[in-house]
Amino acid sequence: MTLDRDIQEEYDERFSEEDKKHLIEGEVYPKQANKYLQKPGMLNKLLELIGVKHEKRFSGGEISEFVKKSIPPEQVIRYHERFDYLTITFLNNLKCPPEKANRYAKIFKDGWGIVDLIRDGITFKQAKKYGRKFLAMEVNDLVRNGVPPEKANRYNARFTALDIIELIKANCSPKEADQYNKRFQGFGIAILYRIGLKPGKISLTQQDNLRVLLGKLIYYNEIKLNSKEFSLLGTGSSGVVLLKKDNAWKFSQQIRQEYESLKAIQERSNGNQKNILGLKGEPQGDIALETEYIPGDTLEEILVQQQSLPSDKVFKYASGILNGLIEMRTAEIMHHRDIKPKNIIINEKTDEPVIIDLGVATTKRWPTQEAEYNKAYGTHDLVALAQVMYKMAIGEHLFSESETMEVTKVKYDIRDEREAVYHNEQGEVEGNERLSEKLQPYFQKVDQKVADERVRTLVKHCLIAKPYHFRKTQRLFKRLAA
Fold first, then answer.
1. How many CB atoms are located within 10 Å of the residue 477 CB?
2. Per residue in 196-227, pLDDT tens?
3. CA-to-CA distance for 58 and 73, rounded, in angstroms?
4. Distance (Å, rounded) from C-alpha 123 to C-alpha 104?
5. Bridge-partner residues for 234, per DSSP?
6. Where are the alpha helices (DSSP H) in 310-410?
7. What angle do CA 170, 175, 177 make, to 5 degrees?
8. How many C-beta neighbours within 10 Å does residue 415 have?
9. Strand 353-355 to strand 344-346: parallel, antiparallel, or no bridges (unpaired)?
């Protein structure tokens, strides 16, 4: 289409050739079109006086649409600049004058959100109570979900309205929400809270250590969509265990390694292992594994409740733990590497110990460096078993003094003391003669504190045993049981 040059030249210079084309096609001529570029009231005259031209607010096509819809420039330019062509059109359809819409615009930055507030009958007075930390569209969501301003405003400003709605649905209070790692969004916190990972159950340090895993867990479809079907069984340094119906689900970054270990044991025993956790399926993705659910408390929980156990129980549970370690070794899983009360569940139906958490188990016959030793309770599994037996019998750690000689329950202080016994100054495993000498004070401690002779004998035997003395230790158990 060829435009009349005289007509084109009368349009404001801010209109492009494309704008002018739309205006001519819509039969909007210069005098009318130029009015849509003005500022309201005295502001326009002031700008003309000082020779300043503000940015073009509407395109030629949009102005043509205003004219078609009979929305005059005098009305359009009075709407706050937060409102564009489309929002002004909707406000006009809602019969909302500029003065009413502009009150909302003083607080809220999102034009479409303001349109929604007005459309849904949320008054300015009502919306204003939510304050400036929310967008208008968020206020709409909060009102629609029945969240009053006084409740919404108690949550930290880092949470969006949708976060707050999910947190409230999960019954997670503002105080509890603030106890989660700040990297987690509110909807993720709500999921963690629903499945039982509440602040009292998982510390900030654990959250930090498990941050990557928890992030994956939040987005794991089965949990994201059905979080109410899961409940917390326990947490560890590298994983989380949940209950769903009759099975346990473990989430860990080392899930593939644990699966391979459990699979080897299950295949070797034809699924009849007695003291090792059973598998229920293959890994789901790279973090989830469905396993047998063992009803009952961990040995750690039992010791918290009872402090110590009768000697018959100590002997029985120790014998079961040893049998579990032998079941592992029969399947070529040579070392569990994390034997401790927290990783032993006492089956409440059978009163048998079941070893769990094989995430760091290894097929290596002998650890070659310190990082491959047991994580918390011993240089190898039998040394760990000795400490677990002592803990069951006395309710205290055998290596219970740190380098400062203060009694402590912090595992790394205990490890400091234990490693000083089992390793020389160069970090190498201590030789037999020197190890026996360094263990003498602990043998005396065992003799003084452990009343049952069988348990005393077993603790001392395991403390000095080699990492391959499992059958020898089992024969000793049998002799003492006779």
1. 18
2. 999 989 988 889 989 899 999 998 888 888 88
3. 11
4. 9
5. 241
6. 311-330, 381-394
7. 45
8. 19
9. antiparallel
How many other C-beta atoms lie within 10 A of the C-beta of residue 247?
14
CA distances 149 to 138, 291, 403, Å, are: 11, 45, 54
Say which CATH class 299-481 falls into.
mainly alpha
Which of the 8 DSSP states describes residue 79? S
pLDDT tens digits, residue range 129-154?
999 999 999 999 999 999 999 999 99
pLDDT band at 417 (very low <50, low <70, confident <90, very high): confident
Structure token pair of residue 71: 């929305």
**DSSP state letter for 430:** P
pLDDT reported for residue 55:
79
Look at the alpha carbons of 147, 153, 155, 156 in this order and tell me if their dihedral is positive or negative: positive
Q: Which of the 8 DSSP states describes residue 429?
A: B
| 96: CB partners within 8 A, 6+ apart | 118
Write phi, then psi, for 362 (nearest 5 degrees): -135, 155
Tokens of 6: 């005289």
Separation CA 54–CA 14 (nearest Å): 9
Alpha-carbon distance of 242 to 231, in angstroms, equals 5
Per-residue pLDDT tens over the stretch 58-90? 999 999 999 999 999 999 999 999 999 999 999
Q: Is the dihedral of CA 235, 236, 238, 239 positive or negative?
A: negative
User: Would you say 151 and 173 are in contact if contact means Cβ atoms under 8 Å apart?
Assistant: no
Residue labelled with tokens 């510390």? 203
For 153, counting Cβ atoms within 10 Å of its Cβ (0-12 exposed, 13-18 middle, 19+ buried), the class is: middle
Of 235, 172, 227, 226, nearest in space to 205 by CA:
235
* Number of CB atoms found within 10 A of residue 107's CB: 16
pLDDT at 404: 35
Q: Give the count of alpha carbons within 13 A of 209, CB side only.
A: 12
Tell me the two tokens of residue 144.
């629609």
Distance, in Å, from the CA atom of 337 to the CA atom of 362, rounded to the nearest integer, reads 8
Token digits of residue 160: 């969006």
Is residue 4 pLDDT above 60, yes or no? no
pLDDT computed for residue 9 by the predictor: 63
Q: How far apart are the first and last CA of the chain?
A: 109
- Contact at 8 Å (CB) between 162 and 137? no
84 — alpha (psi -120 to 50), left (phi > 0) or beta? beta
* Residue type for position 308: S
Distance CA 82, CA 94 (A): 17
Pairing of strands 247-252, 239-244: antiparallel
